[in-house]
Amino acid sequence: MRKFRKVLDGLTTSSPGATLGSPSGGSGAGTPTAAPTPKEIDVQETLLSEDFQLCKTVRHGFPYQPTALAFDPVQKILAIGSRSGGVRILGRPGVDSYCQHEGGAAVLQLQFLINEGALVTACADDTLHLWNLRQRRPAILHSLKFNRERITFCHLPFQSKWLYVGTERGNTHIVNIESFVLSGYVIMWNKAIELSTKTHPGPVVHLSDSPKDEGKLLIGFESGTIVHWDLRGKKADFRIYYDEAIHSVSWHHEGKQFMCSHSDGSLTLWNLRNTTKPFQVTFPHGKVQKDGRKESCKPILKVEYKTCRNSEPFVIFSGGLSYDKAGRRPTLTIMHGKAITVLEMDYPITEFMALCETPYNNEVQEPYAVVVLLEKDLIVVDLTQSSFPVFENPYPMDIHESPVTSTAYFADCPPDIIPVLYSIGAKHKKTGYSQKEWPITGGTWTLGSHAYPEIIITGHADGTIKFWDASAITLQMLYKLKTSKVFEKSKPAEGRAAELVEEDPFAVQMVSWCPQSRMFCVVGISAYIILYRFSKYEANTQIVSLEVRLQCESEDVISPSENENDPCFSEPGSAHSPQHPHRQPSSPGCGTPEGVKPSIPCLKVKDKMVRVPPGYQAELVIQLQWIDGEPPQQITSLDINSAYGLLAFGNCNGLAVVDYLQKTVLLCLSTLDLYGATDPYQRLTRSPRRHRQSTSGLTELPDNQQSFDMERSKSPTSGYASRRAMLQQLHGVTMYSHDEHHTTTPYCWSERATESRENSFSRSRSSSVSSIDRDTKEAITTLQFGESYGRKSDALTSPCLWVGTSLGIVLLIPMSIPTDQEERMEEPVTFGPSGAVLMLKGSVLRFGFLDCMGALIQSPYEVWRDTNAAEDPDRPRKRKLIHFSPSSSQETYGDGHLAVVCSERQAKVFLMPSQSCLYVHNITESSFVLRADVVSVCNSVCLACFCANGHIMTLSLPSLRPLLDVSYLPLTDMRIARTFCFTNGGQALYLGSPTEIQRITFSQEMCDNLQEMLGELFTPIETPEVQNRGFLKGFFGGNAHTFDREELFGEAAAGKASRSLAQHIPGQAGMEGMKVAAGGVVGELARARIALDERGQRLGELEDRTALMMTSAESFSKHAHELMLKCKDKKWYQF
């Protein structure tokens, strides 16, 4: 008990009041006993709360659950709507904007105001929105909410300000786009159909104006009824009643024919001269059976009928396949003349659209491409080539190719790493794409002055790793690595083994990357670690495999006899020798019970020489052994240091350190054995249970459902019954904190979580955590190598390993590493006894190190060298190590450095080597911290935290003053918790949906520069002129431009619509909305001013012509008067 008190006294040696004043929001650490002098920690903190502001920057990836598609043929920009109310607007690479409807209602339809810089969205909550695209961040100008009718279809004619809106009741309303109010002109369904018709025609599924005459509107009803409505005469020209339901209609550009797609898989072609029956009926995929009947086909959901100037028209449609062939993939069919091409898709088709040269519907269309929006992909087909190749997509639409399971974000990387990765990754790109440029080229984007190298790494469920260039808020794939190639192809397991094997055994759990040395580590869900080295050359290599036993199945009893035999911490000053697994299969600290089944690794590493391509090449695989037929616990923490040549990892059973240069296991201890005699907790003597604990760390609930346990939970952590259950799901281990009570009801994840395979990858083993409150295993939650002071008495720094556990304990393990290169490869690395035991509330999450001037101390690293390059005998390559010693630049401040430790509940700053606690700040009481990191912002450093209640906080260093606290993103599912990460420059990212990465910033400087970094969606382009149709065509074909919609739909002629029918809602509130509205008003005023100038110019010209006419009239009057006087007295016969 005396030793325990001594440890506690060492943790409470100072209070904030003894140094630079009490940090706001913190609590004292205890009674000051040996506080350092202010001179030692006289840090000039420069960060203020004004330096921080939270905002979203950009969203990458494929829009999750897409619903709608639109294209502006003049601006050449594409819009995609989603089920969650999001809208992505894409132009040339770099032009990528994301908008979100506040209500989150699904987007039903999108309509561009072509070449006007505006977009209309129709949502499932029966609201129309008008978006202003003439600014870098689009915003809503107007909204119109329908109260009594549901919107089913919209149509906006080119260069018109009147939007036709069809509803579920079969009515057609007309909306003024400029004022966003309803016109009094309504086409009621009972007026559109014949009075003798006894049935309702159904919802409106199609609206379009006739290419021949804009005064005629074609209305398609779901039941198969088609009405050609005369807008001027307010009557139907003709009506068509067809037996099959209609899904879509498409006009021929001359306006004499139109084509319909139906629910029976047929296409009907109708001629306006004879509407009693279709001109042509075809079943493109329906074969004639032996009995003479057509086989039944699936519905054709959409058809487009596009004409060409020099060839036969294109008929493009989706669906229509016969029912007899089950399991066929979704198809897009292209009929060009007599040729029929069927393109099979990987995913169901949501929408498609032909891209044409002209925006006018009464001109030859000349389609050149087809955009196909699939459920999980976006492809563009080149129609100008007979083979119909696909364009290479420049957007990062394949992030979700396999579900993302982990992320890492690195800002300010070495500038040479991106070109190297790109050059190697480019060799493995797919071929067979169209040779033409990507057709969606709208907007403008330039590389801003604030760009610096950034890399995002994503790990996936199938074991792939993707490196992305994230510089200048863009995203481009650099390099792809398949970790599964390290292992032999496994045979299907049987019996009990089949139950325990992962459904995705190669799923990536975490990654660790050193950009300077290019060393890369991958942790897999099957409890293995793969170490990769980077090389520009291909090589023949044999992968070294190490098996580590890190599982305690015996009594966790700390007895004097055990302590005496412990080779690591038996006496102060002793050193621990490396353990070779092939010599000692049973690692220290983990007893082996008698009658144990042979240990079997989950996956078998390739044991033959393999040819590896340039790039990342596997050098070492570390696998945790199966014990007694049970799989090992997942790895919860990892750190690698290239300067030391060491790799450390831990789980809920203990810690292991591997020397990857010598390929040996140096340390393998249970968590209890790490403490030796300094364990601050009284632990019960018990035998741990034999059964496998839950490891469903990477399983997540579907986005659209929650388990019944989460629905009943009302905890402040937004849906999770307890912090332990949350961590059980996040880390896959049984853990608890010493500040929690362990009397709650056992918590189990619902088995319904495994029903959705789309957004998560589930596990076949049971997720029982029934013993979570009884089993006191302590997990290793974070590790970090660095130069520090292992003991209070040390005068010089030495290599150390910082260890953080789930009980809030921080251990500091000093190491002795040979400095000579030859000795380093032969002599073992030794470990001293732990010289520090620090304590915090909650599980330890992160370490950071500052010098006594407040500057961030980087971990030492080895400069990258290519081990496969040809050797120069005259100049042998040596390891070049870069060390950052805490005392190198602070002679005037004395020796020592600051250690920042952040846990789930609080942050502390310690002065080393005295281990005095200088500052402490309780971050949260009602929730817990999920992610924390020490990051650089505005030429300084701060501690950034993301809490489970959705708060993002920043604290100054070293005083831990709160600088930012914003409620940003409530934790609604495990995906966010698993993928959220901070990086330097005040940036962070997370997986906003299963297919999209959302990047955010909490730096005021970046928020200020964001407008410059974003692309422009709208560029001033002249609208193409109408083609000259010729005298005869214009005379006999009618003039489509004589129709005045204003005269017909305006308030003067049509009156006002009922107020109860729809409600007008002005643009967004708040400062951003005001700025947007101001921008919109300025734009509208500018346009109004231009219109007034033009009107004034025309009035001036009219005035001149009027004056000229008056002069002419006066002259005529004068001459007429003179002539009258001359002829007044003459007789008729004198003329």
UniProtKB/TrEMBL annotation:
Its main location: membrane. Keywords: Cell membrane, Coiled coil, Cytoplasm, Exocytosis, Membrane, Protein transport, Repeat, Transport, WD repeat. Residues 1-37, 558-594, 684-720 are annotated as: Disordered. Residues 10-22, 574-588 have a biased composition (Low complexity). The keyword Nucleotide-binding does not apply. Residues 694-708 have a biased composition (Polar residues). The keyword Chloroplast does not apply. Belongs to the WD repeat L(2)GL family. PANTHER family: LETHAL 2 GIANT LARVAE PROTEIN (PTHR10241), SYNTAXIN-BINDING PROTEIN 5-LIKE (PTHR10241:SF19). It comes from the Eukaryota. It is found in: Cell membrane; Cytoplasm. One of its GO terms (cellular component) is plasma membrane. Residues 1070-1130 form the V-SNARE coiled-coil homology domain. GO terms for biological process: exocytosis; Golgi to plasma membrane transport; protein transport. WD repeats lie at residues 239-280. It is a peripheral membrane protein. One of its GO terms (molecular function) is myosin II binding. This is Syntaxin-binding protein 5-like. Transmembrane segments: none annotated.
